[in-house]
Specification:
By secondary structure, the protein is of the alpha+beta class. It is built from 5 helices and 7 strands. A 3-stranded mixed sheet has the order 1-2-6, with helices on both faces. Strands 3-4 form a two-stranded antiparallel sheet. Strand 3 and strand 4 form a beta hairpin. Helix 1 packs parallel to helix 2. The radius of gyration is 17 Å and the shape is globular.
Length: 160
């Protein structure tokens, strides 16, 4: 058992065993991009399958939706900002989902999807880095294989 963490291959193996057809893994840590290749290999690896079967597994993943999202590149820090009450990445995720107000990542139809959230976070984290003068930029990194996944449906106001 690991004292301080879990290896990317162990995490990838766990993801592989999950029966959910739509998965999102969010890593909010410094240099978190470093884990993506091992996670992708463990999640989408051959598992001893023949080439046609491997291709079928990848096509199935693409049809269902698996997203691995890292807070920063392999060389960057994932900054914490006390005034925000979160790190930049978590703050952008939560504001995109509407933690305190309207979901900032909502599409024109008012829905938040994985892709609209990813686009919002990818745009917002570097802006927040600059706004809070964090020094070097922080750039989220995404590995995706799949179709867009709805996360939050439009909320309709109820009549009083």
């Amino acid at each position: 058992m690991q004292k301080y963490g879990i290896s990317a291959s162990a995490l990838g193996d766990a993801l592989w065993r999950i029966k959910a057809t739509k998965q999102i893994l969010i890593l909010d840590a410094c240099q978190s991009e470093s884990a993506l290749p091992a996670l992708a290999k463990a999640t989408f690896g051959t598992r001893g399958l023949e080439k046609p079967e491997e291709r079928a597994v990848r096509m199935l993943a693409h049809a269902n939706g698996i997203y691995l999202i890292a807070a920063s590149t392999a060389e960057q820090y994932a900054y914490e900002v006390p005034e925000l009450g979160h790190g930049l990445f978590t703050y952008a995720l939560l504001s995109g989902l509407g933690e305190r107000d309207q979901p900032q990542a909502a599409t024109s139809a008012g829905m938040v999807t994985v892709l609209s959230l990813i686009n919002y976070v990818a745009r917002t984290v570097p802006e927040l880095t600059e706004k809070y003068h964090m020094g070097d930029p922080q750039t989220p990194v995404i590995f995706d294989a799949g179709t867009d996944i709805p996360l939050l449906a439009p909320i309709k106001a109820t009549p009083r």
